[in-house]
Design a protein that fits this description.
The complex is a heterotrimer of chains A (515), B (492) and C (495). By secondary structure, chain A is mainly α. Chain A is built from 20 helices and 2 strands.
Chain lengths: 515, 492, 495
């Protein structure tokens, strides 16, 4: 037990890749064995993160379970891991969703071995981002996560996967270029990549030794700020950098979309919270308006775009743009208030907004993963995603219909379900800070309702499309495996919706201590 | 003095002795010839691993030294030794030699001559890396250059081999003889009457002298390193060369140029280096971006790799031109990383060409299903190439960029754009070559790679990943070498 | 004049050569038909024995250096000795190459001529007096005229013999005129005495310059520097190839030996700083050297005939060797001697392979060499060695030799000359590689090389192997040869 406690983060981080390695050595014909190994294997990090969750001291400041190992001494970068409330939530989300996604991928029968291995590698990549306290390691995992996703889309995606995967990778690599440069600049300037050290050094820096003298430190910081923002905004995605997302989501295999929407998008938002706010409080304050504008645009345009879709999966994809907009809106509001604001009310609003944003990340992870999975379920049966091809399926598949409606409602923000809590917190928090943007966002929320209902209506209600009623195209009911995938998601959705305190407690502490 | 096993000399002369042995075999006994080649390659590899492991990093400096008089009247000695900069390259040569032999196992046209000439080349390469005497270095340098002509002209791609071989040889020869004038000037200018590099390191050439002679020496050698604008020979040579030769060429030979430019140019003429480092940096950054762009435009797989080598060697030059700790460390690591990576690239390109008989990316496709092992190797190489974290390329490129930041942020920013371009063309090619459906024309032609190929691919892939995950296995070694360079540069 | 043992020792090789010639003359008529080849064996073996005996007994030493032998006619020093050994060696190899020549090999006279020419060259290297020098030059030249035109049935050979004779006679006449003027002005024929007069100013500078010009004409002809090179390509093409090999190596080296001695003595070593005379001469010759190598290489680019190619390449090599000469330093002279050593081995090997090829195929066209690497891998490898050495690639002798001459130029700050030399060696590399390309890359028509082998007879094999090993040894074990060359060069600076 001591061993586990001492090396908990390392174990969580590297257990998926170990399992991936084991899978690589299994015979490729034994698909069943491969699937079950992957599933059971992916439960290991989940179990470990539960251990982490329960042994986490939610009332303590700063990072816990810190570990530090030499990695690249020459440039003073080390494998420095640690968690606080923010990363803990994200780690839990990741390890929670991965087994479900793997279970959801049991329907994959083509090249199961590389698929499962890639999936687990992807998990390590994402966990690495959340766990690392070293800027360079952060960047390493940031990039490492891209590759498995690229291949998952490229190899197991649907018709237009080539285009989508390339677009995905070029956008994200291109976006992270500025991040890379800024990271280099920081490393060169301070001779370390350790985040806790950099938080202090960089924010206090009055001059840098490696920039031309005629460049003002403020300018440099502003440029570096935007470099960071760009990298994370692409990932979130923030309007207008979102165009890769509908393509990638639509073409990715079901489980890929689940992880993509459930976790990968959170990487971007996590970057905002973990790096941008602490590194650039002043710049963030200065540019908070711009961020809020972009967030609002994401919310509104995301909703409009989603409404206009006839492809069910694209609809859900755009809904991600819409929902993630709230996360950024909350963050922008917090940035606007700034670090040393003495106005208590403002500070309170800031905390509420941030709490809401982080909870929204978690919630969106659940509901988007669920939605994508449900789209996958219906697609597996009908081989179409066109909303106009469905119709009145509720009578054929009542259980599925029930689950779909439940999840949609969570997405829509129905009170009593999780989406409501987080969106309410965000809106409550941002209202006094960005009243106009919040108001516009509320209108966006209206359209959220509209497109979700449109989707549900077209699939489940209306006149029954006879095509699916019988014969070889008869749509069958959702099966046990698929229900098992959905059940934990739905339970959590409901749980947070009714009693969010267990998770907000952790988040709130983090919010207070990091910002 | 106690007897010391002359391990470096043994490494240097193993290949050529094996080559002579092969030439003594009757030409028909092809298999025996191959076995001799493999045995020699394995032996050289093991010995270079041994050197790598037993090198004492705490002591640093030149180790395993051997000094014998050669032409004492002129101060020419047989002086060999290795430091942290050269050991990785010796190991690299061992690896490339080993994999090169494996890859060329199926070569059927006069394998005896092929391996003998290839090994002559290997002796030259090993020799340059361990030489601590300018004359000896130049001697081996030339030995490393001319076998390329024969290897490309005889066993190369019929369409362009004559042209490419001649172009390559002339370019390299021009570069080397220009450097020779510089070497001679250093010999006479130092007044020490010696070619011994360790003594010349302390020669204190006048600043005027260094300013004049640095450029000819550095650029003369850097031609072989593929420095822009003298890179032109390199892609043509790559394309025309047979697989193992391309591997040697891009994997090791180009390092030879960069290494010699470092050893002779920067280390012996440090003030000249400081004077001209800006120019070199500009050349290098142009090579980095321009090479990547041209690689992006290529439809020929080997040209693509060839130009990507120009781009990556540009990074090496960029690292060298920073003259600071990070940059030089990065350059040292990049030499190793790129050597292994590009050897892998060419190996896979060769495997594809052997089967499909075309290298045009537009005519290829569907290789992934048939030769998954080669595909994985190629993808790993691709990741290294685009500096993906977790692979050796990142470990190498990152310090280079850090080094450049310290000198000129603008150059760093420009150079970094090459990463996106590289990612674009690598991914596009992976997709086109491996993932697209197999073209009708190629149906039935393509077979999976053989076990020996897999061994080769595995060896280099494992190296790249290991280095990417655990930089500690290489970086401290390189740093001991860098410390010495920095000392010569005046602790800069 | 009193007899001393040094007198014998100083001309020991020549005495032995004479004895060998006489033996040959006596025995040869007894051999008929196939046995005639024995004459070649005897000559070659005899020459190797002469070499061994001379090296063992006849080496000069400190005491003999200053001794004036035969009334100052010749010098017994390392320079002379080293060159003599080179001549004897190349004569021996040439004898091997002549053995299987259809005409040369069957006539004892050809070997006698060879020995006579060698004798003359030996004396050229040793002579320290104008009269002796002239006699030596003639002794060396006349047998060569005969040899060049030896195959009377072949019109081209006859033509080349006549051409060689006419050119040679004319240039020698000019040189002789120079000699006589020199004697007229100075009243002495002893080189060392002449030099004193130049230095003390008894011989006006202008006159000395003019006289030197006349002399250079004669020697320039021997070593084939521009503009006295015109005879070379035609004579090389027409003459029997073994003779050409000898002409282009030993005969050229003999010319250089004389040039070196004349120059260093003529300028009395007052080289630092260079006297005006020495400086102007060095500059003129440096320009000549540059022109020679450039012209030789450029014209060689175009050649399609192996012998013509080698002819022009050997003109170019004269240019490289001149670099060492014009440096007028110890290192320069050392590098000149070293260069000639490497060059003799290399060029003989190149011609040797051409001879072997010509004997079987009857062709000297480069394009007929296609597929050689498959027809005769051994011969192809030796060509590879020879041509790469000519091109100046390690680990062959030519590489080191080139570096030394360039070093000599750099040392005296004639960097421009070194650069021109380097540019030229690039051109050289190009056409040498082109020949190798034909040998290794191209196929014979019909691609059935295996059924057209090129058998090497034993003397060729022996000669070629000895040469290749020599090339390698010069290129790798540099020190001993450098030591000898250095000894030889040092002698020049002792008066």
């Amino acid at each position: 037990m001591d061993f586990i406690n001492n090396y908990l983060l390392t174990l969580i981080l590297f257990s998926p890749i170990l399992i991936a390695l084991i899978i690589l050595f299994l015979p490729k014909e034994r698909t069943k064995l491969l699937r079950w190994t992957a599933l059971i294997g992916s439960l290991v990090p989940f179990a470990l993160s539960l251990v982490l969750w329960f042994s986490f001291n939610s009332s303590a400041d700063g990072f816990q379970f810190e570990e530090q190992y030499n990695w690249y001494e020459a440039i003073n970068s080390s494998l420095h891991l640690g968690v606080d409330g923010l990363s803990l939530t994200m780690v839990l989300l990741t390890t929670f969703l991965t087994p479900l996604a793997i279970l959801a991928s049991f329907s994959i029968s083509d090249r199961v071995k590389p698929y499962m291995a890639l999936f687990l590698m992807l998990e390590t990549g994402m966990l690495g981002v959340f766990l690392s306290l070293d800027l360079l390691i952060f960047f390493v995992f940031w990039e490492v996560g891209l590759m498995p996703m690229y291949f998952l889309i490229n190899q197991w995606g649907s018709a237009n996967r080539e285009y989508a995967s390339l677009k995905f990778i070029i956008y994200t690599i291109g976006g992270s270029l500025g991040l890379l440069l800024a990271v280099q600049m920081l490393g060169v300037a301070f001779g370390t990549y350790d985040m806790p050290k950099l938080f202090e050094l960089w924010t206090a820096a009055e001059s840098l030794n490696n920039i031309p003298e005629w460049l003002d430190i403020k300018t440099v910081k502003a440029v570096a700020f935007w470099a960071f923002v760009l990298a994370f905004a692409v990932k979130v995605p923030l309007w207008p950098f979102h165009t890769w997302l509908p393509d990638a989501h639509t073409e990715a295999p079901t489980a890929g979309s689940m992880i993509l929407a459930g976790v990968l998008l959170k990487l971007g938002a996590y970057g905002f919270l973990r790096l941008i706010l602490p590194f650039y409080p002043e710049q963030a304050q200065t540019f908070a308006g711009v961020l809020a504008f972009l967030a609002t645009a994401s919310i509104v345009f995301g909703a409009f775009a989603a409404y206009a879709q006839t492809d069910f999966k694209r609809l859900v994809a755009y809904s991600s743009v819409n929902h993630m907009g709230f996360v950024i809106l909350g963050i922008a509001a917090a940035a606007k208030v700034g670090l040393d604001n003495t106005d208590l009310a403002m500070n309170l609003s800031k905390n509420i907004a941030l709490n809401g944003a982080i909870l929204q990340m978690f919630n969106h992870g659940l509901s988007a993963a669920g939605m994508f999975f449900l789209v996958g379920v219906i697609y597996d049966r009908t081989h179409t995603r066109n909303l106009n091809d469905y119709g009145g399926l509720f009578t054929l598949v009542p259980i599925y219909g029930g689950i779909l409606i439940f999840t949609s409602m969570a997405s829509l923000g129905l009170p009593g379900l999780n989406g409501f809590i987080s969106e309410f917190l965000v809106v409550r928090g941002t209202w006094p800070i960005f009243t106009l943007y919040t108001a516009i966002s509320m209108l966006g929320l209206l359209f959220t309702g509209a497109y979700v209902l449109k989707g549900v209506k077209n699939v489940l209600h209306g006149p029954l499309n006879k095509h699916w009623a019988g014969g070889e195209h008869k749509v069958s009911e959702i099966n046990i495996r698929e229900i098992i995938v959905m059940a934990p998601i739905m339970v959590t959705i409901l749980w947070i919706g009714i009693w969010p305190a267990w998770i907000l407690k952790v988040i709130n502490k983090a919010v207070i201590s990091i910002f | 003095m106690e007897f010391q096993f002359p391990i470096l000399s043994v490494i240097v002369f193993i290949p050529i002795i094996a080559g002579v042995l092969m030439m003594l075999m009757p030409a028909e006994r092809k298999n025996e010839v191959r076995i001799i080649a493999l045995a020699a390659a394995v032996l050289a590899l093991l010995l270079s691993i041994w050197v790598y492991i037993t090198y004492d990093q705490n002591v640093a400096g030149y180790q395993f030294e051997e000094v014998y008089d050669w032409v004492p009247a002129l101060g020419i000695g047989y002086h060999v030794g290795v430091d942290g900069m050269s050991i990785p390259l010796v190991l690299l040569t061992g690896v490339v030699m080993f994999t090169g032999v494996l890859i060329s196992w199926g070569l059927d046209d006069r394998p005896r001559e092929f391996f003998a000439i290839l090994f002559l080349l290997a002796t030259g390469v090993f020799g340059v890396f361990v030489s601590l005497d300018l004359f000896l270095l130049f001697f081996f340098y030339e030995i490393a250059v001319f076998p390329m002509y024969l290897l490309i002209a005889i066993w190369g791609w019929a369409k362009t081999r004559e042209y490419a071989a001649m172009k390559l040889t002339l370019y390299l020869f021009v570069g080397s003889v220009i450097a020779l004038v510089g070497i001679l000037a250093m010999y006479f200018g130092s007044g020490l009457e010696t070619f011994d590099m360790i003594k010349l390191e302390e020669a204190n050439f006048s600043e005027h002298f260094q300013n004049i002679w640095f450029l000819p020496v550095f650029l003369g050698f850097a031609v072989l390193g593929g420095i822009w604008p003298f890179h032109n020979w390199s892609p043509d040579g790559h394309v025309a060369a047979p697989t193992a030769v391309s591997m040697f060429h891009a994997g090791v030979l180009m390092k030879l140029g960069a290494f010699a430019a470092l050893r002779v140019g920067i280390m012996l003429l440090p003030q000249g280096a400081e004077r001209w480092s800006g120019l070199i940096m500009v050349f290098a950054v142009i090579a980095v971006v321009y090479g990547a762009l041209i690689a992006f435009m290529q439809d020929d797989l080997k040209y693509m790799i060839g130009f990507s080598s120009v781009s990556h060697m540009g990074l090496v030059m960029l690292g060298l031109s920073t003259l600071n700790k990070n940059g030089l460390t990065g350059a040292g690591v990049q030499m190793f990383s790129h050597g292994v990576m590009t050897a892998l690239f060419f190996a896979v390109a060769g495997m594809i060409y052997d089967r499909a008989h075309t290298r045009y990316i537009s005519e290829l496709g569907g290789m992934g299903k048939i030769m998954p092992f080669a595909m994985i190797g190629f993808i790993i190489g691709g990741f290294v190439s685009m500096g993906m974290p977790g692979f050796s390329g990142f470990v190498a490129e990152f310090p280079i960029f850090m080094g450049v930041w310290q000198v000129s942020p603008w150059i760093a920013i420009i150079a970094t754009t090459s990463i996106v371009i590289t990612a674009a063309y690598i991914l596009r090619n992976v997709r086109d070559v491996f993932f697209r459906p197999l073209p009708k024309k190629l149906e039935g032609q393509i077979t999976d790679v053989i076990v020996l190929d897999k061994v080769a691919i595995f060896t280099v892939s494992a190296l790249m990943i290991a280095l990417g995950l655990f930089p500690i296995i290489l970086v401290p070694m390189v740093q001991t070498g860098v410390d010495n360079i920095l000392r010569l540069l005046g602790g800069a | 004049m009193r007899y001393t043992s040094t007198m014998v020792m100083s001309i020991l090789p020549e005495i032995l050569l004479l004895i060998l010639g006489i033996i040959l003359l006596v025995i040869e008529p007894f051999w008929k038909g196939d046995k005639r080849r024995n004459a070649g064996k005897l000559t070659a073996a005899g020459l190797f024995v002469i070499m061994a005996l001379s090296i063992y007994f006849g080496r000069p030493n400190e005491s003999t250096m200053d001794e004036v032998v035969f009334g100052g006619m010749i010098r017994f020093d390392w320079l002379a000795f080293f060159f003599k050994m080179m001549f004897v060696f190349s004569a021996a190899v040439t004898a091997l190459f002549m053995m299987d020549h259809e005409i040369l090999g069957k006539r004892g006279e050809s070997y006698i001529m060879l020995l006579a020419a060698t004798l003359g060259m030996n004396l050229m290297a040793a002579s320290a007096d104008l009269v002796m020098l002239f006699l030596a030059i003639e002794t060396a030249s006349i047998p060569l005229y005969v040899l060049a035109g030896f195959t009377v049935a072949d019109k081209k050979s006859t033509e080349s013999g006549i051409k060689y004779l006419l050119f040679g006679a004319m240039t020698t006449a000019v040189m002789l005129y120079g000699f006589s003027l020199l004697f007229g002005f100075a009243g002495t024929t002893n080189l060392y005495a002449l030099a004193d007069q130049v230095v003390t100013g008894q011989l006006p500078l202008g006159v000395a310059l003019g006289l030197f010009l006349l002399i250079v004409v004669g020697l320039g002809f021997k070593v084939a520097i521009v503009p006295f090179h015109f005879w070379a390509p035609d004579v090389y093409t027409g003459s029997p190839t073994p003779v050409v090999g000898f002409l282009s190596t030993a005969s050229k080296a003999a010319g250089f030996a004389v040039l070196a001695r004349l120059f260093i003595i003529g300028f009395e070593g007052n080289l630092f700083p260079l006297s005006d005379l020495a400086y102007s001469w060095a500059s003129i010759l440096a320009v000549l050297a540059a022109i020679t190598m450039t012209l030789g290489n450029l014209v060689a680019l175009k050649q399609t005939n192996m012998k013509r190619l080698l002819a022009y390449s050997s003109i170019a090599h004269s240019g490289y060797a001149m670099i060492g000469l014009v440096a007028l330093t110890e290192l320069g002279m050392t590098s000149l001697v070293f260069y000639l050593l490497a060059y003799i081995l290399t060029n003989l090997a190149a011609f040797g392979t051409a001879i072997a090829f010509e004997r079987v195929t009857g062709s000297t066209e480069i394009k007929d060499y296609a597929g050689l690497s498959r027809r005769s891998p051994g011969l192809a490898i030796i060509m590879l060695v020879a041509f790469l050495s000519l091109a100046g690639m390690p680990p062959f002798g030519g590489f080191v030799a080139k570096i030394f001459v360039f070093a000599a130029a750099v040392q005296v700050n004639m960097i421009w000359l070194a650069v021109i030399g380097i540019l030229n060696s690039i051109i050289g590399l190009y056409y040498y590689l082109n020949v190798l390309k034909v040998i290794y890359l191209y196929r014979m028509e019909g691609e059935d090389e295996e059924s057209h082998p090129i058998p090497l007879t034993r003397p060729y094999a022996l000669g070629l192997v000895v040469l290749s090993v020599g090339i390698l040894l010069v290129g790798t074990l540099i020190a001993p040869w450098f030591g000898f060359s250095n000894e030889a060069a040092l002698n020049l600076f002792k008066f």
